[in-house]
Amino acid sequence: MITTALAGTSVLTTTPAVAAGHRSGGVAITRSVGAIQVICLLDASGPFTLSSPATAFPNATEADWSAARLIDPEAFGPDGRWHLSFQCFVVAGPGSRITLVDTGVGPAGSPASSWAPVPGRLPQALAEIGVDVRDVDLVVQTHLHSDHIGWAVHPSGEPVFPRARYVVQRAEIAALEAAGSALVPYVVDPLRRTGQLTEADGRTRLAGGHGRSGHRITAVPTPGHTAGHQSVVVDDQGARMVMTGDVLVHAVQLANPAVTYQYEGDPELAHATRRTLLNDARRRHAVLAAAHLNRPFVNVC
Ligand SMILES: [Zn+2]
């Protein structure tokens, strides 16, 4: 069974620099993982412009769609299109450490602006919770699709987060380089030039790791959507959250992990990864944090 939960909006106490804030048209959605707070920030939302739901998820059945409608009703617009959110997650803690998972669609002029429904507003959303771009210590890019790297760098090439280390899987960059992707000169080269890029090789501990119940932030390879896709696992005091990235992009893939998505690089591998991630989450009673669900935090049980 899958349930969604819109969590409370409590004032953060672990990080004085961060206060409760507002989402566009609503309040910031915050969940606790032990003493660590995770805040979902909405960069953009609107209809998917590239294809219809039936084309985007070609093997979804009527039963899958019915189940998905219960999990994320806002995904089903009156116009028949897929309505989705483009979300980033702030991990506030341990201590004053600020980690940002993904950087949204970006501003007008970003690579996603040709198809994203609206320009993004992440810097403003960060400011609303009391986080300046200079406060961000670590940026984890789950993958290098245009709707996840939008605020990594300005269109001018300057990094948006001047103090941050940016973590990307080496396999992700290698695949883009092999394909001659325009995203290499747009985002990879500028971060290399400033020395801010860290290319991770597989599972990587990003913070913590002392003792069984202590806090840990870990990057975990979850390939399939892209070759070097990674998810972020936050553990503290026995609680766990998994920021999925695009292991699942729509509630229909929660309803049935076998539902494939048109833009998955390797659909078979993506399915296997999704199944494993969901099974692990159930076993560990983990909360999922999904980039594109309109109700981002999902309890799987
Ligand atoms: Zn995406």
UniProtKB/TrEMBL annotation:
<comment type="similarity">
    <text>Belongs to the metallo-beta-lactamase superfamily.</text>
</comment>
<feature type="domain" description="Metallo-beta-lactamase">
    <location>
        <begin position="85"/>
        <end position="292"/>
    </location>
</feature>
<dbReference type="GO" id="GO:0016787">
    <property type="term" value="F:hydrolase activity"/>
</dbReference>
<keyword id="KW-0862">Zinc</keyword>
<keyword id="KW-0479">Metal-binding</keyword>
<dbReference type="GO" id="GO:0046872">
    <property type="term" value="F:metal ion binding"/>
</dbReference>
<dbReference type="Pfam" id="PF00753">
    <property type="entry name" value="Lactamase_B"/>
</dbReference>
<protein>
    <submittedName>
        <fullName>Glyoxylase-like metal-dependent hydrolase (Beta-lactamase superfamily II)</fullName>
    </submittedName>
</protein>
<feature type="region of interest" description="Disordered">
    <location>
        <begin position="203"/>
        <end position="226"/>
    </location>
</feature>
<dbReference type="InterPro" id="IPR051013">
    <property type="entry name" value="MBL_superfamily_lactonases"/>
</dbReference>
<dbReference type="InterPro" id="IPR036866">
    <property type="entry name" value="RibonucZ/Hydroxyglut_hydro"/>
</dbReference>
<dbReference type="InterPro" id="IPR001279">
    <property type="entry name" value="Metallo-B-lactamas"/>
</dbReference>
<keyword id="KW-0378">Hydrolase</keyword>
<feature type="signal peptide">
    <location>
        <begin position="1"/>
        <end position="19"/>
    </location>
</feature>
<keyword id="KW-0732">Signal</keyword>
